Amino acid sequence: MVFEGLADRLQQTFKKLRGRGKLSEADVSEAMREVRMALLEADVNFKVVKDFIGKIKERAVGQEVMQSLTPAQQVIKIVNDELTELMGGTQSRITISSRPPTVVMLVGLQGAGKTTTAGKLALSLKKQNKRPLLVAGDIYRPAAIKQLQVLGEQLDLPVFAIESGANPVTIAERAIEYAHSHARDMVIIDTAGRLHINEELMQELKSIKNTVKPHEILLVVDAMTGQDAVNVAETFNNELGVDGVILTKLDGDARGGAALSVKAVTGCPIKFAGMGEKLEALESFHPDRMASRILGMGDVLSLIEKAQSSIDLEQAKELEKKLRKEDFTLDDFLTQMQQVRKLGSLDQILGMLPGMGNLKKQLSGVDFDEKELAHIEAIIRSMTKQERRDIQIINGSRRKRIALGSGTRVQDVNKLLKQFAEAKKMMKKFQGMQKSGKKNFGGF
Ligand code: GDP
């Protein structure tokens, strides 16, 4: 989970401060020493840490904090403000050209996650009613073209590729012509990477840039490589010019050093963060919300946005209708669970809720939701249509058959049936409450 180490350390530091009541200058200095250590351990660039601590100290030792009734809260607020500022202050979006197509060029080293990110970005744009075209510009790794074509199929989006002989500049030019003639308003060019930065790579990217003049050059870097990611960003920005950074694999980055240093060191804002391998796992990067997550204050806004974009509204309405008519079946139960699952892992969801840090720790390492969902799906798929509609008919021998068919145990089948019955009961109760609530209101 992202920033786990840092979040733990900072939250402990602030807990101590809270217990103090009035704060002396020495208390603040001690806390700042701990914040400094925590940031260095998180692999934040040392110069960035030095400036950061300097700014906080200047603000925190002032009269208004020391004399306030809630000095600890004031210090936390200052740290929150400065963390937000450090990561870029406000959200940076990509430029959308008023004359389509908008051309976005993804650059970065091999393995950083460019191709995957191209797919994620295309999905996110598609959800905003854009018409993206994916362009396979990585001609050196034959698998890259195939990988992008597979993503295109999954997303039901066109992929422009020339399989033999063409150079990346020609491919990019032709792709843009294709976009014009097929009314695609966003062009996402996946370029080739290399294991390390070299002259050949930079020359190639520069020629694409000079020819197609992209509206956005986004650098994809792997957050887990920490300060290396920051160095890569600095070089790419100096050599090529970069409009924004996409930090991938932030889900696996417990330290967070790259996320906290890249803007301060390079001046390039982070525009998106990759939070997993799935295509839905791309988030717009909001510095203020990230700061809140680090300080254990949660990020309810991102959770709500995630729910809005992941949950299929039509499907949800359909489910609600069924609930009202009380013909909610096991198939519907499965659909509902799959929708919730799209929001991310339990760990990620809890990380966005304020004060859930402790619960998260207790659950860490338990990926039961993923496995359990697979079990539930297997069990439901092993039932006949009739059984799914009416669980009353599922007797002992049917339970045995279902367990065998789904590779689970009879206990698992029993457990699922019980969960389903409970869920149905709860829904009934909830509806009862809604109905009687209405009646009461009518009486006023
Ligand atoms: P490319 O060489 O830059 O095109 O990299 P790929 O797109 O092929 O990605 C390399 C690997 O990183 C693949 O296994 C991806 O699934 C994985 N990956 C990409 N983005 C993320 C992310 O945000 N989180 C995680 N956990 N894995 C990612």
Detailed description of the structure:
- This protein has 21 helices and 8 strands.
- With 444 residues, the chain is of the alpha/beta class.
- The C terminus is likely disordered.
- Bound molecules: guanosine-5'-diphosphate.
- The site of guanosine-5'-diphosphate has 18 residues, from helix 6.
Mind sketching the topology for me?
Layout: H1 4-18, H2 25-41, H3 46-60, H4 63-66, H5 71-86, E1 102-107, H6 114-127, E2 132-137, H7 142-155, E3 159-160, H8 168-181, E4 186-191, H9 199-212, E5 216-222, H10 227-239, E6 244-248, H11 257-266, E7 270-274, E8 282-284, H12 287-294, H13 300-310, H14 313-324, H15 330-341, H16 346-351, H17 357-363, H18 368-381, H19 385-389, H20 396-406, H21 410-443
Parallel strand pairs: 1-4, 1-5, 2-3, 2-4, 5-6, 6-7
Antiparallel strand pairs: 7-8
Helix pairs in contact: 1-2, 2-3, 3-5, 5-12, 6-7, 8-9, 10-11, 15-18, 18-20, 20-21
The structure holds guanosine-5'-diphosphate.
Residues 108, 110-116, 193, 248-249, 251-252, 274-277, 281 line the site of guanosine-5'-diphosphate.
- Beta-strand portion reads 5-15%
**DSSP strand tally:** 8
Strand order of the largest sheet: 3-2-4-1-5-6-7-8
Catalogue the ligands: guanosine-5'-diphosphate
Q: Cα distance, first to last residue?
A: 50 Å
Provide a count of the helices: 21
The main sheet comes to:
8 strands, mixed
Q: By helix and strand content, what is the structural category?
A: alpha/beta
Q: Give the averaged pLDDT, no decimals.
A: 85
Tally of distinct domains? 3
Task: Briefly note the CATH topology name of the largest domain.
Answer: Rossmann fold
Question: In CATH's first tier, which class of the largest domain applies?
Answer: Alpha Beta
Protein name: Signal recognition particle protein
Family: Belongs to the GTP-binding SRP family. SRP54 subfamily.
Binding site for GTP: 108-115, 190-194, 248-251
Domain SRP54-type proteins GTP-binding: 269-282
